[in-house]
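Hi U.,

Before I forget, here's the chain from the pilot set. I'm dumping it here mostly so it's searchable later in email.
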Amino acid sequence: MKEIWVLDDEDNIRNLMKRYLEKEGYAVRTFSSAEELNNALINNNPDMFVLDIMLPGQDGLSLCRTIREQSALPIIFVSARGEEFDRVLGLELGGDDYMAKPFSPRELVIRVKNIFRRLNPAEENPALKELVYENMVISPDKRTVTVNNTELSFTSKEFDLLFVLAASPNRPFSREALLEKIWGFDYEGEERAVDNTVKRIRKKLHEKGARPSLATVWGYGYKLDV
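Structure:
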């Protein structure tokens, strides 16, 4: 059973999310403050986080930075702050999705399911095999990327984007196509989210001396140069 940790300082919203997620068979643990969740992280890890942004004390964005220092577990932001800046910043920090309050709890359940589905592509398509290019190996079933036998730490969005490009080497993908494939048709953010994700992937691959590389197709998008 997958476990989801929900952080929100409003009791009614926290309990609403818990109720709907538990109906779908998820184990749910709730927190009213980032400090409380941080203490729980000392001994445990969930399968996903649902984080409010506007919180007393440490906010959700700051907590995301802390989580990303040690984990690539998926993060969904929910917040009354629905401005574009907050959405983009949340995704730049490594968030996997963003929902503005008020939101439908059913929509939250669908987004949670979609993220878990993307995290396990081999379950949806058992024919998916490891992709091997020179010194880089991408394993969709384990969701790992290794370079020279060293595993790299990727967020779920970073892995998904790299896998899409690697599954069709030398084929250019437009920013719009990548945005729809990785973030979904209902994502309201900008194509800048794609650029920032590619930037982070490139940095991680370059630091380990990975071959091949992500190439920019100017004025269009990106491809994996093999």
